[in-house]
UniProtKB/TrEMBL annotation:
Gene3D superfamilies: Ribosomal protein L28/L24 (2.30.170.40). HAMAP family: Ribosomal_bL28 (MF_00373). The lineage of its organism: Eukaryota, Viridiplantae, Streptophyta, Embryophyta, Tracheophyta. This is Uncharacterized protein LOC104721692. Residues 175-213 are annotated as: Disordered.
Length: 213
């Protein structure tokens, strides 16, 4: 294994954890880590699905003159949901990798189905190892089955809990907006009383002036 392959292997073992990798899985990683293939630096931080920078010639239309140029893959920042980890994974992916993920049925299925030799980036190998490790842990967990009566009880309990939450929110809104409505009503009554008092005062003054005349 070349120096570049050894460094990639060290990083993978360090990120996943040496105690979490079985010897068989370690041998698989060693056999599938790219040895001399040219991989872009930024491809180490994403899922590129074999799409990397390509080099070629730009040919002019007039004289057929050739000049060197390169083609870079279309890279997007995406948040992909993982059902195994029950959270979103923020990763840089190419549009080709997105099509492969959609075709596989999700990021978990893509990582599980894609062989190690096609995962030619550090992040791809890292997430594939983590998903396989988590999948093995889930496979060893005990599964409990409930009777239909217990399931009906659980469903009724969730319904009662949702109803209680709705009632609590409704009561909180009633207290909040009811208090504000009472304050506004008191202000309106005070303003109406002030207008009535000013009108009555004007009428008294007018009557006093007529009596004096």
């Amino acid at each position: 294994m070349s120096f570049r392959g050894k460094e990639m292997m060290k990083k993978l073992v360090k990120r996943v954890g040496a105690e979490n990798i079985t010897p068989e899985l370690k041998e698989k990683l060693k056999a599938c880590v790219p040895d001399a293939k040219v991989v872009m630096g930024r491809a180490k931080r994403g899922l590129y699905a074999g799409r990397h920078i390509q080099y070629g010639n730009r040919i002019s239309e007039d004289g057929g003159n050739k000049s060197r140029r390169c083609w870079k893959p279309n890279v997007q920042d995406k948040r992909l949901f993982s059902y195994i980890f029950d959270r979103h994974i923020k990763v840089k992916v190419t549009t080709h990798a997105l099509r492969c993920i959609d075709k596989a049925g999700g990021i978990d299925e893509y990582l599980l189905k894609t062989p190690y030799q096609k995962m030619d980036t550090e992040m791809g190998l890292f997430w594939k190892t983590k998903v396989e490790q988590k999948y093995a842990e889930l496979g060893q967990m005990e599964v409990a089955f409930f009777t239909p009566e217990d399931e009906a009880k659980f469903e009724q309990g969730f319904k009662d809990l949702n109803i209680a939450k709705k009632d609590a929110r409704r009561e909180a809104r009633r207290k909040l907006y009811g208090k504000k409505g009472g304050e506004e009503k008191g202000e309106e009554e005070a303003s109406i009383e002030g207008v009535v008092g000013s009108v009555s005062h004007q009428e008294d003054d007018h009557g006093w002036l007529e009596a004096k005349a």
